[in-house]
Amino acid sequence: MADDIRARRAERARQEKRKGMPKQLARYAPVIVVAALVIIGVYWAATHQPPPKKFVHEHAAFAWYADGQELSFRSLDYDFASGFQDVVHMHAQGAEGDASDVLHIEGSYVGGNPDWTVKRIFEQYGMKITPGDITFDSKDGHHGQRFADQGNATWHFLVSKVTGTTRGPFVNISTLAGADYTSYVPREQDKILMTYGDLTQAQLAQQEASIPDANEWRAAA
What we know:
The chain is of the alpha+beta class. It is built from 4 helices and 12 strands. The chain folds into 2 domains: about 1-50; about 55-220, no CATH class.
């Protein structure tokens, strides 16, 4: 008999405890929710940090040719001090010497690839650039001339890069399948040749040689 009474009392205690559990959970629910949100927030902040900015100060030499004639960029209209405040700019015949054929890359970018493409750089000076069709600005004797691929007369875009201490040969990017040379991003010590016409390999080599070597134009810059 006594055992039955004890058993019934224990059962009632368990039932009362179960009835009280929802009230206890409701009492602590806000604390649990806040703690969960804090944990989620800390995790999100730790895994979603914006990539750091990368700061660069680089130089690339270049030359433009059209039908065998080199185009000049020595006018003060191309000088950084004349109002072109983009990340990439030129210095035309200033106190630093005649560095007008040097691209000065001074700025920062976020992520893996900067966006100072050949198209962006030269279109800020009034040119219009699409693959195979380029219209020059009207400054420095350019007269707004347009040169478009036609027959054997085409645009050639060649780049010589430096890896470590070794300069590589010029690579004609415009002949690579699927390549858009207008989206090329100049980098430190590049030598870039942009030339139009029905050109032989000997003519291309002569124009390539006209671009100063790194030590020469870096000293001027």
